[in-house]
């Protein structure tokens, strides 16, 4: 009897151990061994491209060499080089950094077969961030039947530098957009490998927030990414004017000129000098001498300004979910101009800057309570306008589009003046309320917060599955088309129509006039920071 019991106990232990055996996936790129998180398989640090070092620095990525044997995929790969030391609520420095950073992470249910895929592109102004941030843990989405992939891509000067010498060595005679090309290479890896992890390469959703949302729009616009994804989620994206490679039709300094000036400030007399510079040094120095990364309109990777691509219907024709947050600028006050001394000063400046549009501007953003008006106008002119424009243009392209406003507050955020702050939707959309940065205002552990997170993550994952966001027992989210429908995420989801009437039309008129006049950027320079408004042009309000 004792022997039988002992044998049974050993068998039970062996069975439990077998159930948690490290998962191994044999993918075309090579076999990898991950780890289990309950019933979710997790694979970390899988290389999708060769290390961009040496001559590969500032070159298009090449597929990672295939490997033999089984590669360990239990630890995060290195993040791409980025400045550290920020004390903002978003600060979450990566454990390690390297130029050998083009890797990705995969979360997949143990029994996943032909499951929809979400490829997450992190934010951080194209300067910071990494796919392995705890906030982006994909286990919650994977438990809802989605295979999740988060990617690293080159950042800052290493990810977006354009320079005449770099263009000269390119077969297409263009440069810049290296980080965007990394994202495209990661999507190619997904197409070729994700079936081995239980994902469906024919049902891929690209998703990102802030600079990740900007990247989603770049991918929608780029001919090189066509066919690599089938739906898109853009959270707090910004459709700003983008530098062109060799000219400056909208006042942005040409990208090659920016690169030439940066090389001079770094005292680099040749491309070899730039490539010989230490990655940490060049990453930390470039922002100090005025370098800011953006995509480049080069005629190859990005053929036109984003606004023009979407106006012409040349973007990827895929279902879209897009939105913004009510308090975007509360945590990004650097984007807002200073508050004038008096309401009279505010009104006078707006009338000077906006001319015949000043009346509508002051109706929407009155001098009374001018600080709140400044925050709202900056939010609407950058993030609100972009989200609604995306919904309009995808609808016009014959695709379903879903618009949202995240207007949720909780004590820790509201008491800090951060109601609905930039990125505050992420813990709810991911279902990761307990995976925040060290100084992120913590949501309370209450049933209502858990319900909102469950609802949002359900909307997001159901959209990835079918192209329609649905959450059981919650408000029905209708497409934007027809009634300008949207979903407000407040204490609970609430369906609405005609978000912020007048705000989109005003900013669209501003952008339209600036585009017609030329010589000035579309966005950032808003309200009190606006140059004098150009005269009304044909087709512009």
Oligomer: single chain
- How does the helix and strand content classify structurally? alpha/beta
Helical content band: 25-40%
Q: What is the total number of structural domains?
A: 1
Number of strands: 14
Number of helices: 17
CATH superfamily: Alpha/Beta hydrolase fold, catalytic domain
Catalogue the unreliable spans.
1-19
Distance between the termini: 89 Å
Write down the overall geometry.
globular
Q: What gyration radius follows from the Cα positions, in whole Å? A: 24 Å
Q: CATH architecture, please?
A: 3-Layer(aba) Sandwich
How large is the share of residues in beta strands? Answer: 5-15%
CATH domain fold name: Rossmann fold
- As laid out across the biggest beta sheet, the strand order is 3-4-6-8-7-9-10-11-12-13-14
Overall residue-averaged pLDDT value:
95
CATH class: Alpha Beta
Task: Provide a brief overview of the structure.
With 541 residues, the chain is α/β, with parallel strands linked by helices. The protein has 17 helices and 14 strands. Helix 11 (343-354) packs across helix 12 (358-364) and helix 13 packs across helix 17.
Q: How would you portray this structure in words?
A:
With 541 residues, the chain is an alpha/beta fold. The protein has one domain: Rossmann fold, CATH 3.40.50.1820. The protein is 34% helix and 15% strand. The protein has helices spanning 2-19, 139-143, 156-160, 164-169, 178-193, 211-221, 255-265, 271-276, 279-288, 306-311, 343-354, 358-364, 370-396, 411-415, 426-430, 447-466, 503-517; strands at residues 24-27, 30-33, 35-37, 40-47, 70-72, 103-109, 115-121, 147-151, 199-209, 231-235, 320-325, 401-406, 485-489, 493-497. Strands 3-4-6-8-7-9-10-11-12-13-14 form an 11-stranded mixed β-sheet, sandwiched between helices. A 3-stranded mixed β-sheet has the order 1-2-5, with no helix packed on it. α11 packs across α12 (358-364) and α13 (370-396) packs across α17. The chain is globular, with a radius of gyration of 24 Å. Residues 1-19 have low confidence and may be disordered.
């Amino acid at each position: 009897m004792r022997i039988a019991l002992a044998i049974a106990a050993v068998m039970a232990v062996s069975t439990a151990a077998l159930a948690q055996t490290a998962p191994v996936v044999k993918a075309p790129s090579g076999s990898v061994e991950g780890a289990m998180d309950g019933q979710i398989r997790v694979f970390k640090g899988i290389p999708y491209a060769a290390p961009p070092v040496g001559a590969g620095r500032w070159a298009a990525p090449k597929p990672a060499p295939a490997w033999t044997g089984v590669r360990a995929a239990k630890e995060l790969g290195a993040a791409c080089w980025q400045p550290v030391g920020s004390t903002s609520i978003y600060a979450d420095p990566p454990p390690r950094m390297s130029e050998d950073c083009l890797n990705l992470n995969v979360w997949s249910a143990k029994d996943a077969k032909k499951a929809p895929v979400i490829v997450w592109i992190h934010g951080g102004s194209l300067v910071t961030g990494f796919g392995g941030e705890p906030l982006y843990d994909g286990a919650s989405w994977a438990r809802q039947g989605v295979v999740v992939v988060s990617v690293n891509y080159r950042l800052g000067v290493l990810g977006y530098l354009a320079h005449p010498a770099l263009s000269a060595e390119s077969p297409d005679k263009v440069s810049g957009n290296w980080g965007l090309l990394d994202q495209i290479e990661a999507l190619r890896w997904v197409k070729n490998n994700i079936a081995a992890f239980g994902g469906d390469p024919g049902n891929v959703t690209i998703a990102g927030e802030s600079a990740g949302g900007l990247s989603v729009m770049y991918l929608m616009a780029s001919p090189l990414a066509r066919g690599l994804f089938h739906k898109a989620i853009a959270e707090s994206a910004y459709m700003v004017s983008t530098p062109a490679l060799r000219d400056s039709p909208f006042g942005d300094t040409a990208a090659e000129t920016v690169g030439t000036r940066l090389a001079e400030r770094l005292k680099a007399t040749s491309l070899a000098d730039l490539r010989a510079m230490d990655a940490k040094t060049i990453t930390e120095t470039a922002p100090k001498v005025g370098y800011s990364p953006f995509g480049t309109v080069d005629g190859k990777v990005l053929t036109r300004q984003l606004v023009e691509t979407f106006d012409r219907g040349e973007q990827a024709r895929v279902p879209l979910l897009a939105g913004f947050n009510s308090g975007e600028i509360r945590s990004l006050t650097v984007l807002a101009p200073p508050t004038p001394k008096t309401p009279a000063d505010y009104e006078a400046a707006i009338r000077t800057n906006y001319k015949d549009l000043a009346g509508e501007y002051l109706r929407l953003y009155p001098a009374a309570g001018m600080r709140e008006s400044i925050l709202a106008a900056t939010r609407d002119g950058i993030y609100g306008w972009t989200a609604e424009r995306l919904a309009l243009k995808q609808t016009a392209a014959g695709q379903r589009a879903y618009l949202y406003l995240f207007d949720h507050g909780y004590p820790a955020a509201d008491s800090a003046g951060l109601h609905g702050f930039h990125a505050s939707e992420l813990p709810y959309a991911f279902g990761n309320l307990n995976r925040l940065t060290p100084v992120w205002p913590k949501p309370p552990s209450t049933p209502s917060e858990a319900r909102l997170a469950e609802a949002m993550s359900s909307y997001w994952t159901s959209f990835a599955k079918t192209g329609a966001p649905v959450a059981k027992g919650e408000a029905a989210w209708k497409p934007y088309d027809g009634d300008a429908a949207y979903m407000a995420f407040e204490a609970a989801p609430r369906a609405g129509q005609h978000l912020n009437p007048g705000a989109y039309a005003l900013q669209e008129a501003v952008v339209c006039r600036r585009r017609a006049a030329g010589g000035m950027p579309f966005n950032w320079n808003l309200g009190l920071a606006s140059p004098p408004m150009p005269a009304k042009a044909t087709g512009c309000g």
